[in-house]
Amino acid sequence: MFSKYKRQSATAKPVTAAQPKAAPAPEAQPKAPAPAAATLRKPAARTKAEAAPADKERKRKERMGEIKIQLHRELLENLNLAALERASEAELRAEISSIASEILEERGIVLNREDRQTLNKELYDEVTGLGPLETLLQDDTVSDILVNGPQQVFVEREGKLQLSDVTFKDEKHLMRIIDKIVSAVGRRVDESNPYVDARLADGSRFNAMVPPIAVDGSLVSIRKFKKDKLGIDDLVNFGAFTEEMAAYLQAAVSTRLNVIVSGGTGSGKTTTLNALSSFIDNAERILTIEDTAELQLQQTHVGRMESRPPNVEGKGEVSPRDCLKNALRMRPDRIIVGETRGEEVIDMLQAMNTGHDGSMTTIHANSARDGISRLENMIAMAGIEMPIKAVRSQIASAVNLIVQASRLQDGSRRMTSITEITGMEGDVISMQEIFRFQRVGLTPDNKIIGHFTATGVRSHFSERFRLWGYDLPPSIYEPTVMEAR
Ligand SMILES: Nc1ncnc2c1ncn2[C@@H]1O[C@H](COP(=O)(O)OP(=O)(O)OP(=O)(O)O)[C@@H](O)[C@H]1O
Ligand SMILES: [Mg+2]
After folding, report:
1. By alpha-carbon position, which residue is closest to atom 4 of ligand 1?
2. Which of 139, 188, 301, 405 is the Cys-Cys partner for 268 at CB 3.0 to 4.6 Å?
């Protein structure tokens, strides 16, 4: 039954020979499904009755896991991987299923139809994809995947983290998948090189850290790539900000204010940056610089750059700063840096100050004020010795607007503040908040109650907006409760 996908040399060797310990037939017999019995038991026996199906399910999963590992090993030994690359998906699925049947038959393992289908899918995912992660990667409702060792895989759905029922057989299995991902991008991860950043084939962002630095087994984080990034309208519909705020942001981006999106991990910084970029005129030349290319700009004239970490020998690094310096020679109208986190801050601020106004970036900070301190720290860390007042005045003249993105405790993501930088007062950078999210309480099921409001302060840039043709009505600055959709 093995065909062209089978390794030629392997034909001589009986399949079973590879596996000295065949699964004993009795254990392999499908267990008679008797869950109905559990419901007939008397109330007194309830705890036991409930435990039984769970236990059974666990055993079934364990057994399936073992069969899968054995079959997978044999499949890899017997498949002609070179021929496999050229096979169509349907061909490959049929092939895997027929090889699996053959092996199961030889072992006398009988599985019901459902288990067989699951097994075939899992084997296909193991051979061609990323094993247990594959189902989660294909599930569009999952936005983040977080693996804490082989037995614990969390996923984020609609802003909420939940434990999934996906597991790996053991640490070795998990490591094999990690290896598969990183070797595809020419990287390596092992004890001496215990963490790595990579991008999956579909554009998802991937980070892994392996033992011994990861104490309880490898840690993996995946931010799934969204084909259709959330746009301004989506974000307004989700209640991330209001139409009035969107109109203000449109004026700010179109009139080329320099904008920083600030926020914590996973707070929606990149999503906001991407949505804001939609306000940029199509005629402008935009250059983007990211560690992992995530932005999806809709304009025609876009040059994308991705910085590169050093290779295994510590060579070949192209830092965000290198990209930024080079970008300045490439005649951009605007520069967008995915995240500013290090010495590139100097060049970013300089770019913002010298003709590339309308540039944008994100920083990791919890408020506008905190964002400014972060920028000051980054400048200090970059080894620039400047009096603090000079640093601040450089920041104050470069940055016009800080948009704060937050992931609130109920999992919702909102633009909790829009703050303008208006200049310096003495040694201090002066700012004014224009819009904010006002929390007022919590529902019994822990949903946040609140509303957006303007602060009553008129924009420092309103004259600029007017001159550029963005005549915002004064009413949008009135401190009334704004309707979020
Ligand atoms: N307002 C929103 N409503 C619902 N989902 C959102 C919203 N904003 C962002 N998301 C989703 O939240 C996830 C994290 O968003 P994003 O990548 O923009 O965060 P980030 O702050 O850039 O994260 P990181 O710090 O990891 O770079 C994504 O899956 C994104 O689609
Ligand atoms: Mg991001």
Report:
1. 413
2. 405
pLDDT in tens, 162-216: 999 999 888 988 998 999 888 888 788 988 889 998 888 888 999 999 999 999 9
* Residue 240 alpha carbon, nearest atom of ligand 1: 1
Which tokens go with 238?
């989700």
The pLDDT tens digits for 13-63 are 443 333 444 444 444 444 444 444 444 444 444 444 455 677 877 787 777
Considering every ligand atom shown, identify the ligand nearest to the alpha carbon of residue 158 and give its number.
Answer: 1
pLDDT digits (tens, 9 = 90+) for 197-206: 888 888 899 9
Mean pLDDT score, 372-384? 93
Model confidence at 429, pLDDT cuts 50, 70, 90, reads: very high
Task: Tell me the one-letter amino acid at 275.
Answer: A
Is beta strand 195-199 parallel, antiparallel or unpaired with respect to 205-209?
Answer: antiparallel
276 bridge partner residues: none
The domains of the chain, with CATH numbers, are 1-128 (no CATH), 129-226 (3.30.450.90), 232-482 (3.40.50.300)
Q: Distance from the CA of 270 to the center of ligand 2, in angstroms? A: 4
Ligand 1 centre from 115 Cα, in Å?
A: 36
Closest residue by Cα to residue 116 from 103, 132, 127: 103
Closest CA to 248 of 270, 263, 232: 232
Contact, 248 vs 471, CB < 8 A? no
Tokens of 23: 């699964």
* Vertex 470 angle, CA 466 and 476, to 5°: 95
Q: Is 141 in the pocket of ligand 1 (CB under 6 A)?
A: no
C-alpha 229 – ligand 1 centre gap (Å):
10
264-309 pLDDT, tens per residue? 999 999 999 999 999 999 999 999 999 989 999 999 999 999 998 8
At 49 the pLDDT is 47
- Closest ligand (CA of 235): 1
Candidate of 270, 364, 403, 412 to mutate for ligand 1, largest count of ligand atoms within 8 Å of Cβ: 270
Residue 295, Cβ neighbours under 10 Å: how many? 18
User: What secondary structure, in 3-state letters, does 412-440 show?
Assistant: CEEEEEEEEEEEEECCEEEEEEEEEEEEE
Is residue 74 within 8 A of residue 67, CB to CB? The reply is no
Position 64 scores a pLDDT of: 76
